[in-house]
Amino acid sequence: MKPNLLSSVLISCALFVPFSPGFAAESEIIVTGQALPVSMGDAAYDVARIDRDRIIATASGRIEDVLRDVAGLSQFRRSDARSANATSQGATLRGLGGNASSRALLVLDGVPQSDPFGGWISWPAYAPERLGQVRVTRGGGSGVYGSGALAGTIEMDSVGGEANGFSGSLAQGSRQSVEGSALLGGRVGSGFGFISGSYARSHGFIPIVAGQRGSVDRPAPYEQATLAARAVVPLSDETELQASLLGFTDRRERGTPFSENGGDGADASLRLVHRGDWGVQALAYVQLRKFTSRAVAINAQRTTATPSLDQFNVPSTGMGGRIEVRPPLGKTVELRLGADWRRTIGETNELFTYVSNAPTRIREAGGTSDTAGAFAELSALHGPVTLTGGVRADRWWITKGRLLERTLATSASLRNDIAPDRQGWEPTARAGIAFDAGSITLRSAAYLGWRLPTLNELYRPFRVGADATAANPALNPEKMRGAEIGIDVRPADGLVLRTTAFTNRLRDAIGNVTLASGPGTFPGVGFVSGAYRQRLNLDAVRSRGLELDARYSLGDWAVSASYALSDARITGTKAARLLNGLRLAQVPKHMASATLGWRTASLTGRYVSAQFEDDANSRRLGGAFTIDGLVALPLSNRVSVVLRGENLADKTVDTAISATAIVERATPRTLWIGIRIN
Questions:
Q1: Which of 110, 196, 450, 552 is the right S-S partner for 183, CB 3.0 to 4.6 Å?
Q2: Rounded to the nearest 5°, which phi and psi values hold at 234?
């Protein structure tokens, strides 16, 4: 992170809590730090929850791993944020993947978290220590959130007033890995706040599988840190102001020379919450991001590596606001009215076409996008029946789009593509019903969603090894319609069984479509020796499936399990006709996770079936079953020694395969020993 950005974030975070003016209050007003209560209409949707105890007690200690407890929630790649390229870490649900941009909307305390330029997620920014709970709405999440939530919504909430005092952990792991996190929180008067931070570094593992390595392959180190502060200030008996700051830095290497990538970021937000007869919440936020990435070309014997691309500066900004009002209509009727706006600004600056290890060309690509929407949602409780329905209208604008290329030696222009400004409307809606018969709840829902193409998808061509993909400034927004039916059963105390069947149809799905094979020269990318692709709108992606969730607790024992079947297939014509009927890239048909816990010990097993690396289904990534474990040995009421193990059986988890059949893997066996203060 640049010194001016990092220093301003760190100083602000350090001063934020102790000097917040609301902390001088001496009244007994109780504040929560949370948003307005969840809607009564949520009873009709498939919602999964992860509590704080689980968030801070996984073998990896990383939030992207915690989310894998919810089967069907996945990233574009199987690897986590320690070894993957940051651009491959978009989040999705219900098999609606096949694209590195997120198709599920991730929010932290109501603030959208996808990268403003590329739509991926900077997972190292979120220290589990500072989180109180996570709510995942599979499908149907678009009603009140708009663009980006077409596959669902992942809502992360910061820890509240229960974070009183100090908690944290410090651990040493395999391959000279070190990580630590800490949170210091407390109440002053009727307000509260916290400062949290985390740090992790490692020499890393070699991503390429053992039998294919050459002399250029080496461990992929990483170093990541985040610092956050949050304060909640009472303004009256029913009103509170919530203020948050977040800064992070992320440095990774991909396991060869010239393959560094990472980024820095800083966020700030203010949220006003009023819990009187009229429920009101208003949010304003700003995000600053800067990303860098280098790519490398490697010969067939993997003995030489030469630079091929240097994204030396990818700055972006996200800003927006949201307001919601809930009029007083009684205890059995709830009306939500609101509006929101989000702007993203970003560009990539990169060096390419290397000759004798030196770049000969420079590229600039980027633009601006805006979305503004309004929504209304009405829910009613009539005896055992909950009814809910809502409508939404969004206006979008894509402006200032450009793709410029010139030579470094003479500054001569090679490309000067100025995309026309565009705008349009996207109406969406959702509706649901739930019938609570005591130990059984029946529910059904239908919904529409949409996603605006990212600036990265619209304007930036890219290469991965020998393959190249051209940009497409004419991409249309993605549109999804879906329906689900489910049953929740509570046959005994402590036992909950949940089953949901769903069908989704994603129209104009943005995919990287293979158009030809090299060697050859192709429009938008130049010479290509592997596959030539372009970002195109597919006719549709159809995803149908089943989700099963179970939880059981008995005394000191607890069991949780989650399974998702997602059959996602492409409907393609014209340029995509050869993809018709094929499976969506990077989407497994089966995903499962189960955790057995006893007191302070747990064992987690996870399974992901085979999936395809590419849209043509020619490169297959094998299935994998992994086991993680954790045990905490108390030394006192507050201090424990913690032993953790990731991928205990050291299974090879394929995460990528190149045009020349070179396979990358995810995290191998990793053992940790550390101390935790509760």
A1: 196
A2: -75, 130
Query: What was the pLDDT predicted at 19?
Result: 35
Label residue 521 by pLDDT band (50, 70, 90): confident
Whole-angstrom Cα distance, residue 93 to residue 545?
11
Q: Measured between alpha carbons, how far is residue 655 from residues 177, 386, 479, 591 in Å?
A: 22, 43, 28, 15
Distance CA 564, CA 499 (A): 10
What is the band of 28 on the pLDDT scale with cuts at 50, 70, 90?
A: low
β-partners of residue 216 are: none
Distance of CA 291 to the CA centre of its chain: 16
Give the span between the Cα atoms of 359 and 356, in whole angstroms: 8
Residue 251: closest CA among 10, 126, 83? 83
What's the pLDDT at 144? 85
Are 548 and 499 in contact by the 8 Å Cβ rule? The answer is: yes
What does the alpha-carbon distance between residue 225 and residue 205 come to, in Å, rounded to a whole number? 19
Interatomic CA distance for residues 123 and 141, integer angstroms = 21
Q: How many CA atoms lie within 13 A of 93 on its CB side?
A: 30
Helix (H) or strand (E) holding 58: none
Cα-trace Rg, the chain: 24
Residue 23 has pLDDT above 70, yes or no: no
**Residue 590 in contact with residue 634, Cβ under 8 Å?**
no
Angstrom distance (rounded) from CA 550 to CA 566: 18
pLDDT at 321 over 50: yes
Domain, as residue range, for 329: 3-677
Angle at 311 between CA 309 and CA 312, to 5 degrees: 120
Residue pair 514/467 in contact by the 8 Å Cβ criterion:
no
Q: Per DSSP, which regions of 383-528 are E strands? A: 385-407, 413-418, 422-436, 440-451, 462-464, 467-470, 478-492, 495-507, 510-517, 520-522, 526-528
What CATH number is attached to the domain comprising 522?
A: 2.40.170.20
Task: Judge contact between 517 and 552, C-beta under 8 A.
Answer: no
Predicted confidence (pLDDT) at residue 288 exceeds the cutoff of 80: yes
Instruction: Give the CB-side neighbour count of residue 527, counting CA atoms within 13 A.
Output: 6
Q: What one-letter code names the amino acid at 465? A: G
As for how many domains the chain has, the answer is 1
pLDDT at 575: 78
Q: Tell me: pLDDT of 79 over 80.
A: yes
pLDDT of residue 459: 95
Q: What residues contact residue 522 under an 8 Å CB cut-off, 6+ apart?
A: 468, 470, 515, 516, 528, 532
0.90 surpassed by pTM:
yes
**How many beta carbons lie within 10 A of that of residue 182, not counting itself?**
18
| 195-220 core/surface letters (b: 16 or more CB in 10 A; e: else) | bbbbbbbbebbbbbeeeeebebbbbb
The pLDDT assigned to 416 comes to: 95
- The residues, ordered by sequence, that sit 6+ positions from 363 with a Cβ below 8 Å of its Cβ are 348, 349, 350, 351, 352, 403, 404, 405
Q: Which strands, in side-by-side order, build the sheet including 467-470? A: 462-464, 467-470, 531-537, 510-517
Task: Indicate the DSSP class of residue 67.
Answer: G
Mean predicted lDDT score pLDDT of the chain: 91
**Checking DSSP bridges between strand 467-470 and strand 531-537, what pairing results, if any?**
parallel
